[in-house]
Amino acid sequence: MIEDKTHWAGKFFVVWTGQAFSLVGSALVQFALVWWLTKETGSATILATSTLIAMLPQIFLGPFAGTFIDRWNRKAVMLVSDSLIAIATLFLIYLFSTGRESVFAIFMILLIRSAGGAFHYPAMQASTSLMVPKQHLARIAGMNQTLYGVISVFAPPLGALLISIFPLHSVLYVDVFTAIIAVTLLTLVAIPQPIKKNGIGDGTLKPNTYMQDLKEGWRYMVKWPGLLSLALLAMFLNFLLTPSASLIPLMVTKIYHGGAVQLGLVDSSVGVGVILGGLILSVWGGFKKKILTSVMGIVGMGIGIIVFGSLPGDQFYLALGACFFLGLMQVLANGPLSAIFQATIDPAMQGRVLSLIGAGATAMSPISLLVAGPVADNLGLRTWYIVGGIISVIAALSAYFIPAIMGIEDNHPDTVPSESTIPLEQ
Q1: Which residue numbers in the chain have pLDDT < 50?
Q2: What contacts 363, CB < 8 A, 6 or more positions away?
């Protein structure tokens, strides 16, 4: 990891700023497509399926993408990923401008964009741990959460405003322009690259094969009891909570009797909570034992979801309060975990391990979405929110009594695969 406390910030925040612009464009595209699907179909099953489609690359590419990220130049991975996502948006613009848009076409674009993200996100995460000194990682995680909150606040109302003024294909150009900014700034900065060397018994050095690297990532995770237990907990929580996010547009329209403006207010309320949570985490850094902060955040998320799914339809503004609380708790749940992983996982293994964790957590979501869509259509939208929220609270409280999870910051493997990590700027 780079330990230069004088010069790391300038380089890192050039990259961070470019990625912030890209996230704004992606948020606008996401809002526009979700609203189009909601308005055109009004189907919980379609919305759940769209979320499922976007997750498939994360599930099937994730375990393998991480190994490539650890083998390839991480800067190149991010450049190609950003460019691929922008090209997919350009094709979507063409479809809408020529009147050829369809649910199937949107599903395919979501699939391509997600494939780019399957490589981009773990590459950025793994690069961050090499660019930022260890003692600053928790605060950077808080800043990232604040950024997501700011985007959540401003992107939905901005998207609703732009959609009401311009054709949808014109709004999508914003994503292309922000991607150009991200790629341009990324080209200006050298990204540290870990170099691995492996002994083969006679004193010589020979690079691992792809399959050896893939197996090393899996062994590293299994050998770490806290990491494996936390990954399993994340899988269970994703099964419970993923539908809560994908069904929000229908909750707004059918339960709270709102439209695009109300949907934007819900997203913005979550965003304000995320901003406040991010600011709190940036200054505070969480409890000394970071996993305690995460457990508290998960309990809070469950409570927020229960309240949002239980309120009467005429109590929309109380529902916004629940969304605000949910956003705040989301930061306290996710931010410390990110810092734990970046600070304790060997930098040369982070692409593989983070991708495996992400793929495992995401893999449960399609199952829940396939179940949640029909359940919501037949038993009511509130069902999944109330039941999922209650079980999430119970699961988080149960984790407090699992030593492997509560000791994750201390019980990582004493030894790692035989490789040396030398950060070089490339």
Answers
A1: 1-5, 197, 199-205, 415-426
A2: 59, 235
